[in-house]
Write a structure and sequence with these properties.
Chains: A alpha+beta, B mainly alpha, C mainly alpha
Number of strands of chain B: 4
Largest sheet of chain B: 2 strands, antiparallel
Low-confidence stretches of chain A: 1-31
Radius of gyration of chain A: 23 Å
Distance between the termini of chain B: 33 Å
Distance between the termini of chain A: 37 Å
Number of strands of chain A: 22
Shape of chain B: elongated
Number of helices of chain B: 11
Radius of gyration of chain B: 23 Å
Oligomer: heterotrimer
Largest sheet of chain A: 7 strands, mixed
Mean pLDDT of chain A: 88
Chain lengths: ~550, ~325, ~325
């Protein structure tokens, strides 16, 4: 069945807008004729509930898209598309933090006059930020992993008492200081994710998604009502006054989100003029027709994504390097892109091209079926039984069947096993789940090589439950290189290490068979303009505007 | 309630004669035989003689020549080629560039196998439970009846999906028996379990009424043991009912296989079955509707034939054998 | 009669308890079903996973977890789902009118058409109409219902949507009756047809056979002998009796539709009723809504079966003795 689930992957940077509409970093839309117009209510549709509308708990595109418009943190990713959207800029903080102590201390000045909406109706204080980060640990947030590098966070996770000693808030001086256990080049990115958005002290230690009085906004919009399985209503936040050009006021008067609209339905309703915008991308089978019929209403959003097959180095026959290389030779990446309706670019790299100098294209495994067969013979594993795992969201089942077919061609005995997407990711992240080989993809949490190489390949992170190193790759020499890069400041030197590791892992380990950087085509109403696709917060509601 | 025993062993000849006079039964039998022939010996023959594509052979990058033009099997936007009068891709291709016609032939094998084997398992288990329950009576009867009630009250698809999902990761491990999670045995077992009560209950009723009849009492008086009575006296007398049920349950099970595959917990992908061909085809119904429509028609024709045949068998063998399953 | 009723009610409760235990056990042996991991997100820390297990009570013995869930379901009535932590009972309450709209509408269609066709078929026994209807009846029960829905949806709302006869059919979704009665009916039109088609033929057959049985009963012959008009005999005597088995069957079927079949239909048409909620919960291995929904489904199956049995007893006094 086609079912679009919540935990679809997270964001990315580069949004190259449709070739026909011109690329670039400014807001651009179909028939974008001049200045944005204010007013109007956007009619939006979403297939199911967003996971949460609590910044501490939401960890999906849907949630972040909405929270970007309603809440703010000390820092923000620049509200722009393309590479510019990967830059971290001040938001509630008046400037970028002062980094001292060899990269272990970050000091922020909080901008006065940023207001929480009613019923709290007061200024945001540094202690609110401290409270919000501590709250993550008390509500079992999925985002705590970003903040465990703060001094005292580990013990606070266990005791939940006395606060995190490494966060020092001074409400009089309007400063907040973070002390880290070791330098971390991406700490600013963590501070810009919605997990670190400021909530007022006193927010209860439970999901506030359905508690209206605690859904307190700081941004241009606020959520006025949320009825799960039915609707989300978003209106202008009357207390909002733009404090920086990076957090502008919105054009729309509000957004009415209808929950439970299927992808097929969305296409029909947008075409019939009953809907303006839909959270998910176009169903692949409708794309060709839509592009032909409404060329100005289809946008191919590109995110920092890598779609690949993983091979578990702990499981026979993929414990043999030759077998892993054989798989890399055996898959025809162009054929796989066709399975995705042409919505992607073939790749052999681990790091997506949107990450600047961290991406250095290599081409180690040109399609070569004969060589793959020979490697399988050489490894002496011909006839080995292999189960290829995948989830059931279209077109992944076709992709895993393609892989299984190819494995059978090169001399293995492959079967396929699919799960619903909502349980798939957890199942493969458990050693007990025991996949030999399977489909997976990774979309950035923040635009940096670390989010790909360190998260998915550093053997120091291997755990039994909640394991992101699906291949169980553990090469001590490379682990060391990763740890070294992580302590370096962002920039070309650091990127060069990621690019080198990308090459080394593919050449000497080959536990990944990367095949595509995926695109997400989007179809919207002809009246909707000002579409800006940010790699981290996705489409920005405040930039959108409606014309007649 | 005194009643003559239903058609027993000797009566099958009479029944066959009645069947032969029923044109609908003959037509449906011919249709079924044709389908079975096409799927079993026919499928490899087609592959070796008409078009050399196996059911899992993918050809995404391939082309075929039509009217002197080279046509891609799968276009760059992922749209596969449609039906046309040609040896290869008679009904078109799917998004992996596989031949739909060949997949339907091979898929029929799996659907028929799953339907038939699970029906045999189901009817066998139902016979054992039904006869045992009615003959033993007392605690055994209560225990079995309550178990049947329980399975019966469970909404069919929820039960089937719950069981299938439970077995999905590690398969079934009962003592020394281990069934792999991708094995066909899992949908077979699941489908068999959910319909046991529908068959066991009428069989139990039939045995209950048989027990009071003279020939059973005579057998008991002559000193026959319970096992002998159940096997030699009761079983032949419920055989005609079981045969009618078997035909109808095969039909139901083919539909259930399709529904479970459609919900994503039926026959594992890669091995085509009519159900999972529909499930995959439905994803692209707009660009490639035949991928959904053709296997559905195959199911419909097969199930109609089985139902007509089952109906005729009932009229001929045992008009009391009523079975109603709500899908 | 009262004792019988009480006995049946006790049985109903016992079955529901047993089913709830069964569901609970099945879902606790599924590896992918570990909700703690789902709650812990993409970068889970081991400490966080442990903490979630503790906070949600997943580290408690199974029987404690079971009673806890039953408590939240029946007494506190604040059960929440693992998938998105939204309350379960309001979601079900919201789904019920949708599911009932679907089931009742379809039931009306299949009963009206089924009885009409059945009576016609019985009156013209053995003629071509009868034969055609027999085949159509069997064809109806032989269609995979989800496939019929999918194909109708494709043909009428996409492929031939531009034809004026079909252009009013919306591509799925639901509109409440209170908000727009016409929209409610147009949105439910295709689901109704889909659900009814598989039953019309079957009911026609039942009515036909029952009519034929009844026509040869003594009292009908007596009525005829007394010189009553054939029309009066049909309406007064035959029809009333021959509808008894139909009522019983209807009870079973309606329970099964509301408690089960909707799981296949609603997702196709995006009706977001109880069936779609069940389909989503089972796909997400989301135990709390699944528990509530299974009990809901089983309740309908058992309750309507009980109702059918009692109606049968009431309509047909002969059966009381056996």
């Amino acid at each position: 069945m086609r079912r679009v689930t919540g935990f679809l992957a997270l964001a990315t940077a580069t949004a190259l807008l449709a070739a026909g509409c011109g690329g670039g970093t400014s807001a651009s839309g179909s028939g974008d004729t001049g200045a944005p117009v204010n007013g109007g209510i956007l009619r939006a549709g979403i297939p199911g509930n967003p996971d949460h509308l609590d910044p501490a708990l939401s960890y999906t595109n849907e949630g972040w898209e909405i929270l970007e418009a309603t809440n703010n943190g000390l820092l923000t990713f620049k509200k722009a598309s393309g590479g510019a959207g990967a830059t971290v800029v001040p938001d509630i903080a008046s400037a970028m933090p002062k980094v001292t102590d060899g990269g272990k201390t970050y000091t922020f000045h909080v901008r006065p006059g940023v207001m929480f909406s009613a019923p709290v109706s007061r200024e945001v204080k540094p202690s609110d930020v401290k409270f919000s980060i501590e709250r993550l640990f008390r509500v079992d947030s999925g985002g705590v992993g970003f903040y465990t590098g703060i001094v005292g966070a580990d013990s606070y996770a266990k005791t939940r008492k006395g606060g995190i000693s490494g966060i020092v808030a001074n409400d009089k001086a309007m400063t907040i200081t973070f002390h880290l256990t070791q330098p971390d080049g991406t700490f600013n990115d963590y501070i810009a994710t919605p997990f670190a958005f400021a909530l007022p002290k006193g927010t209860p230690d439970k999901d506030i998604s359905t508690i209206p009085q605690w859904r307190v906004a700081t941004g241009p919009y606020r959520i006025t009502s949320y009825v799960p399985h039915q609707s989300i209503t978003i209106r202008r936040n009357p207390t909002f006054k733009s404090w920086t050009p990076d957090t502008p006021d919105g054009h729309l008067d509000g957004i009415d989100v209808q929950i439970g609209v299927t992808p097929e339905q969305s296409v029909n309703e947008i075409a019939d003029g009953q809907l303006d915008w839909y959270f998910e991308s176009v169903p692949p089978d409708r794309l060709t027709q839509l592009k032909a019929q409404y060329p100005k209403q289809v946008y191919p959003f590109v995110r920092n994504n890598i779609t690949y097959f993983f091979m578990n180095e702990r499981k026979y026959p993929f414990n043999k390097l030759d077998v892993r290389k054989a798989v890399n030779y055996a898959i025809d990446r162009n054929a796989l892109v066709k399975i995705y309706g042409g919505q992607g670019t073939p790749t052999e790299n681990i790091i997506p091209p949107g990450l600047g100098t961290a991406y250095k294209k290599h081409n180690l495994y040109p399609y070569n079926l004969a060589k793959a067969k020979q490697l399988i013979q050489q490894a002496g594993v011909a006839g080995a039984a292999v189960t290829v795992w995948g989830h059931n969201t279209d077109p992944t089942p076709s992709a895993v069947q393609y892989l299984a077919g190819v494995l059978n061609q090169i001399g293995l005995k492959a079967t396929v096993k699919t799960f619903d997407e909502s349980v798939y990711w957890d199942t493969i992240a458990t050693q007990k789940g025991d996949p030999q080989i399977g489909f997976t993809d990774w979309n950035q949490d923040y635009p940096e090589g670390q989010d790909f190489i360190d998260v998915a390949l550093n053997g120091e992170h291997i755990v039994n439950v909640g394991n992101n190193d699906l291949t169980n790759t553990n090469i001590p020499a490379y682990n060391k290189m990763i740890d070294q890069a992580k302590r370096m400041p962002l920039g070309d030197a650091r990127n060069a290490i990621w690019a080198k590791l990308d090459y080394l892992y593919m050449k000497n380990d080959a536990a990944w068979a990367p095949f595509m950087n995926r695109q997400w085509p989007k179809y919207v109403s002809p009246h909707l303009h000002g579409l800006v696709f940010n790699g981290n917060y996705f489409e920005l509601f405040p930039s959108m505007y409606l014309t007649q | 309630m005194i009643d003559s025993p239903p058609v027993a062993a000797g009566g099958f000849r009479t029944a066959l004669r009645r069947l032969r006079r029923n044109p609908a039964a003959i037509v449906s039998a011919i249709v079924l035989l044709t389908i079975v022939f096409a799927c079993f010996p026919g499928a490899p023959l087609w592959v070796s003689h008409a078009c050399n594509h196996g059911p899992s052979d993918q050809n995404i990058q391939g082309t075929i020549t039509e009217n002197g033009h080279k046509v891609p099997v799968v276009r760059n936007d992922g749209t596969p080629i449609g039906p046309g009068l040609r040896a290869c891709y008679l009904l078109g291709a799917d998004s992996n560039g596989r031949d739909l016609f060949v997949r339907i032939l091979y898929g029929g094998r799996i659907s028929l196998e799953v339907g038939f084997i699970s029906a045999i398992v189901c009817v066998t288990v139902a016979l054992v439970l039904g006869i045992l329950s009615a003959y033993a009576g007392g605690m055994t009867d209560s225990a079995i009846s309550r178990l049947l009630d329980l399975i019966w009250s469970f909404p069919v698809y929820l039960l089937a999906v719950a069981l299938a999902t439970a077995f999905a990761v590690h398969g079934i491990a009962v003592g020394p028996i281990h069934v792999a999670s991708t094995s066909l045995a899992i949908p077979i077992v699941v489908i068999a379990i959910v319909y046991v009560p529908y068959v066991a209950r009428p069989i139990r009723g039939q045995v209950l009424s048989l027990r009071r009849m003279e020939f059973i009492e005579a057998a008991v008086a002559s000193g026959a043991g319970p096992v002998k009575i159940m096997l030699a006296e009761l079983l032949p007398n419920v055989a005609s009912m079981a045969l009618v049920f078997l035909t109808l349950i095969v039909a139901t099970n083919i539909l259930t296989e399709a529904a479970l595959s459609f919900l994503g917990v039926g026959v594992p992908l890669l091995t085509p079955s009519w159900g999972n061909i529909i499930e995959q085809g439905y994803q692209t119904i707009v660009t490639a509707p035949w991928l959904t429509i053709a296997p559905g028609l195959a199911i419909m024709i097969t199930v109609v034939s089985l139902n007509v045949l089952g109906d005729a068998l009932r009229d001929a063998l045992d008009p009391h054998a009523r079975l109603r399953i709500r899908n | 009669m009262v004792r019988l009723l009480l006995g049946r009610l006790a049985g109903l409760v016992a079955v529901l308890v047993a089913i709830s235990v069964m569901v609970f056990v099945i879902f606790n042996v599924i590896p992918g079903g570990d909700p703690a991991l789902r709650l812990a997100g993409r970068h889970p820390t081991q400490q966080n996973i442990r903490q979630i297990r503790h906070d949600w009570g997943f580290d408690q013995p199974l029987y404690t977890q079971y009673f806890d869930m039953m408590n939240h379901l029946f007494i506190e009535r604040d059960l929440i789902s693992y998938q998105d932590q939204t309350p379960v009972l309001p979601a079900i309450r919201r789904g019920i009118p949708r599911t009932l709209s679907l089931a009742i509408g379809a039931a009306l269609i299949w009963m009206i058409f089924g009885i009409t066709i059945g009576v016609l078929s019985g009156l013209y026994q053995g003629r071509w109409l009868d034969r055609v209807l027999t085949v159509v009846a069997l064809a109806g029960v032989s269609i995979p219902i989800f496939w019929l829905g999918a194909v109708l949806l494709y043909l009428l709302t996409y492929k031939y949507h531009s034809w004026p006869v079909f252009s009013w059919i919306p591509p799925g979704g639901y509109v409440p009756f209170t908000q727009d009665p016409a929209g409610w009916a147009t949105h439910l039109f295709l689901p109704w047809i889909t659900l009814a088609v598989v039953s019309i033929g079957f009911y026609a057959r039942v009515v036909r056979n029952s009519l034929l049985d009844t026509r040869h009963q003594d009292y009908v012959r007596t009525a005829k002998a007394k010189g009553l008009s054939p029309h009066r005999v049909l309406v007064r005597h035959t029809l009333r009796t021959c509808l008894i088995p139909v009522v019983t069957l209807f009870g079973l079927d309606f329970g099964a539709v509301v408690g089960g079949t909707v799981i296949l239909i609603e997702p196709i048409f995006g009706l977001e009723g109880v069936g779609q909620y069940a389909q989503e919960s089972v796909a997400h291995l989301d135990l709390p809504p699944l528990m509530a929904l299974t009990l809901y489904g089983a309740f309908f199956v058992v309750f309507f079966n009980m109702l059918a049995d009692l109606t049968y007893l009431w309509l047909d006094p002969r059966s009381r003795t056996t």
